Each structure stands twice: as structure tokens, then as C-alpha cells.
Amino acid sequence: MHIFRLFIFLVISLPASAKVTTTLLASGFKNPVWAEAPAGETNHLWVVEKKGVICLLHRQSGKKQKFLNITKHINIRMNEQGLLGLAFSKDYLKNGRFYVYYTNTQGDTEICRFTASGIGMLRCDANTRELLLTFKQDARNHNGGWIGFGPDGYLYIATGDGGAANDPKKRSQDLSSYLGKLLRIDVSPKTGYRIPSDNPFKNQPNAKSEIYAHGLPNPWRCSWDRKTGDFYIGDVGQNQWEEINFMAAGKGRGANYGWRLREGLIATPKNGVGGNKPSQSVDPIYVYKHGTKSNQGLSVTGGYVYRGPIKKLQGKYFFADYANPRIWSFELKNGKAINTEDWTDRLRPQQGKINSIVSFNEDQDGSLMIVCLNGKIYTITAE
After folding, report:
1. Cα(2)–Cα(5) distance, integer angstroms
2. pLDDT category of residue 297 using cuts at 50, 70 and 90
3. CA-CA distance, 264 to 142, in Å (whole number)?
4. Segment 306-348, tens digit of pLDDT
């Protein structure tokens, strides 16, 4: 799939015997769904609040300030709506350009570019908003919401199937719809965007040329392995299964992940919905069943492959469940998920529990953060 950059960074590894735990980085945010800092920035963290505000957190002092307020563009009428994603351009500290994913006052999706200014690009005027892409949602749920730059420099956008239940309008398999897709666009022009020349459906009649892959129900948090360029998709299921989908570096153009015909590894268990695998379909690398046991859940939150300073965590893909608050990891070998571990108890903070996990994210050194809808952000550390 990717022509990816080599990430060159120095990691001072902690001993393998170090105890892994979590440290509370900050609290008091209002329904945060994402936290990120642009390349080269270590003093501040940009925290996305679902209602339409991006806060700037000074990591040492804990001081918070508003960076961007677009609440006038958003009207949340269901939990899955709001300001859902943020992505910084590679050269953000020079050009101030960043991108957001939200549902607007009508409940439809908008992808917008903003431009920050000032020393360190720590201020943003909401009037710099440029609408790049918009598309209607069929219902108020399954909005997707992840957006991020790939190692190839293109902007990727993960969209849900439009909501209701079992993708009633068959959007995910419909190449004339933006819903249930992984989109890929070139945002390097001063305004607007271009379609990359190798997008798989660019020259196919009636297909949206932005589509890179399809057959997704509700992709909620995706990531690239910063060492290998592999791509992971945490994809929220319907009534039976949650799944992690995968795209190996340099492969995956035009991939079909099977929804709505397939849920997890089986035909979708709903009369008139499930069926055989579509052509060129790709099975998930990991699935778990709905339930409240320690190996079950109801809504997957995709994570990251750990590439930080804790030696014993190297190469483990961390992910979680939002509704049944568990944190797990697995390792990928020959395209298979192996060595699944439950980290929930080991990562429990000294006070309380880590609940409502909506996102993971990486620091500059590859350390992982955990973002919770209840307003708290943790870092995975060792002692």
C-alpha cells in the first residue's frame, strides 16, 4: 500500500523487568475524543473535544487554553456525532495547516482544513476554515471519524457506513458512495485537493475517485506502525463481532473488508444480510465476540503498535473496548495475530479505573497515550 518514510529516532529502552503502569497526564476535558501533537512539538498537546473545541494543553504546567472553536458548525443529537478527528500536516510548524473531521449541524460529514498562526502555531482563527469534502449521512450513528496522514504523504479518511443497522442501503459495497470507506486524497495544493494518480477506482465509471478501500462498517481509530508502515483499522461491528482489520505496507489498494456481507469472520447473522465473501475480500486479523467477559466487548477502539522506550512492549499492538473497559495487545507474525494479552489490571491507575476509552495516540518517542471520554488522558509508563 505505502511508499513509506524511514522513521529515524533514538530510543533509550527501559529494562525488560520494569513494571508497566499508567500515569494521569491531564483531566478536566469535556468529552475528549483525540489528542495529538504535530511533528517536532513536545511542549503542547492538542486535545479534541467532541462538542467542537480543540484545547491546547501545556504538558509541564497543565495549563489549558482554547485553540479552535467550531461549535457553531456542529449540533450533536446522538453520541457518535461531533468533532471526531484531527490530523496535522507534516510541516505544520511551518505552514500551520491541519485537518478536522466532524458531523455538521445537519448530521452530515465535513472534512475541513484550517490554518494556525503565531509563534509555534499555537493560535487558530476559525475563519480560516476551508471545506474540502462533505457527504450526507443516512442516520446519526456509524459516522466513522478518523483522519490521518499516511507515510506516503496523503490524507486518509475512514468513514462509517451511514448508520441505522446492518447497512440497510448497502453503502459499504457501493463504490458510488463515500460511506463505509477508506478515502485517500492529496491535500498539497494551496486550496482544495487532488486525487492521487494510483487511487484504485480513479478511472472507474460511477465510482468515487477518493476511495482507497471499502467494505467497512464503522472504522473507529486507525494507525500506521511507524517502523514498518503497516496499517491497522479498529472497526466497530454490528451485533456479534468486533474486529481489527489490516493493510500491509505496500499492499491493500482496493481492498474489500467484506461488510455488510461479513461481520468478523462469518456471514453477518441477520436474515437477508449475510453472505459469501465478496471478491478480493480481506478477513480481519483479529476478532472478538460481543459480551462482558474479559476477552469480549461491544465497541472496539483501535490503537497503535508500541514503538516507545519500554522494551517489553516493543511490537505489541495495543487496542481497547469502549463499552467493556478492557485493554489488550497482540503481536503480528506472518499476517496472524498471536500472543494476545490482557493489560487491563496492569494498567489500572492507583485511583479508579480507566473507562470510556475513545482513542490511543503516540508521543514523539513512540510512547502511548490513552484518551477517555470522561475527560482524562493517561500515558503508559514504566517504573
Report:
1. 9
2. very high
3. 17
4. 999 999 999 999 999 999 999 999 999 999 999 999 999 999 9
Place of cell 505489541: 316
* Structure-block grid coordinates of residue 357: 476509552
Radius of gyration of the chain (CA): 19
Q: How far is CA 259 from CA 26, 274, 276, in A?
A: 38, 9, 11
Q: Cα(216)–Cα(219) distance, rounded to whole angstroms?
A: 7
Residue 351: per-residue pLDDT: 85
The one-letter amino acid at 234: G
